[in-house]
């Protein structure tokens, strides 16, 4: 896996990343940190990427389990250390799994498998942060 990050050259702290798959992603800092608030902060991207990583796993596992999943949302809130490096110290993941006739035990299993076996991002963040998982099943 590869990526390249370049400072945009604009006044402030905007950066453009180009991923190994050829996609671009913009990031910026907060105005009080020299940024212009033009894009998400780098740590917001880390948090969002972790949510996408685990949601991907949950959808895939539930599909393979024969479940009629229609959507999967993960709402996250994170706490960070007071001092630099301001690593995540606690992340709450709340899954909203939407579908028809979803079996609660299979939803539980999918979330557990994602975080214990498949999601590389949460495995890394779990080295510095307490990870808390909750979920609800919504009938569609």
From TrEMBL:
InterPro entries in alphabetical order: KH_dom-like_a/b, OsmC/Ohr_fam, OsmC/Ohrsf
Pfam family, one: OsmC
Domain of life: Bacteria
SUPFAM superfamilies cross-referenced by the UniProt entry: OsmC-like
Name of the protein described by the UniProt record: OsmC family protein
